[in-house]
């Protein structure tokens, strides 16, 4: 955690920045109230963020959304939808003691999808969020998903056995 913070500080350019709109060195960090409109799972969602950190020009009023702003909007979307934030997913994977690759295999999705959630600000679908919640909280779900043959054996019963059973009962 400490490493992450110091990295962010190093990456941050010192304020004020030069404004791309008016050319003045007057861009500073401000907090604004923001009504977000985000498309997710094929639907447009609108929600209010009372305090969003953005860069804004003190001279001409131009507003700039940076990576941190995008992260805050993603968290706002997750809270609005009642799904896990990127930090909660990261913590869940860590708690289960699996690598991102193994986690993806157990869920039956590509490793790149997990990477997009964790690194690229992509928000998971509700259905995968539900599956992840089960995976994180229920060891029985974890072991079932880890053993794909076990799931197939339950899902596809032998047809001849079913017919025999039916015959015995009649
Ligand atoms: Zn400006």
What key attributes describe this structure?
170 residues, alpha+beta, 434 Repressor (Amino-terminal Domain), 2 domains, three-stranded antiparallel β-sheet, elongated, disordered N terminus, disordered C terminus, binds zinc ion
CATH architecture of the largest domain: Orthogonal Bundle
Q: What fraction of residues sit in β-strands?
A: 15-25%
| Spatial strand arrangement across the major sheet | 1-2-3
Largest sheet features: 3 strands, antiparallel
Rg, Å, rounded: 23 Å
**Number of DSSP strand runs:** 3
Mean pLDDT value: 86
Bound molecules: zinc ion
> Class of the largest domain in CATH?
Mainly Alpha
Q: List the total number of helices.
A: 9
Distance between the termini: 66 Å
CATH topology of the largest domain: 434 Repressor (Amino-terminal Domain)
Task: Catalogue the unreliable spans.
Answer: 1-11, 166-170
What best-fitting shape do the alpha-carbon axes yield? elongated
Class based on secondary structure composition and strand pairing: alpha+beta
How many domains make up the 3D coordinates?
Answer: 2
Order of helices and strands: HEEEHHHHHHHH
State the oligomer. single chain
DSSP helix fraction: 40-55%
Can you walk me through this structure?
The structure is a single chain. By secondary structure, this protein is α+β, with helices and mostly antiparallel strands. The chain folds into two domains: 22-82, no CATH class; 84-170, 434 Repressor (Amino-terminal Domain) (Orthogonal Bundle), CATH 1.10.260. The protein has nine helices and three strands. The chain has helices at residues 2-11, 67-81, 86-96, 100-107, 111-119, 126-137, 139-146, 148-155, 159-169; strands at residues 27-40, 43-57, 63-64. The chain has a three-stranded antiparallel β-sheet, with helices on one face. A hairpin with a 2-residue loop joins strand 1 and strand 2 (43-57). The chain is elongated and about 60 Å long. The N and C termini lie far apart (66 Å). Residues 19, 21-22, 24, 26, 57, 59-60, 62 line the site of zinc ion.
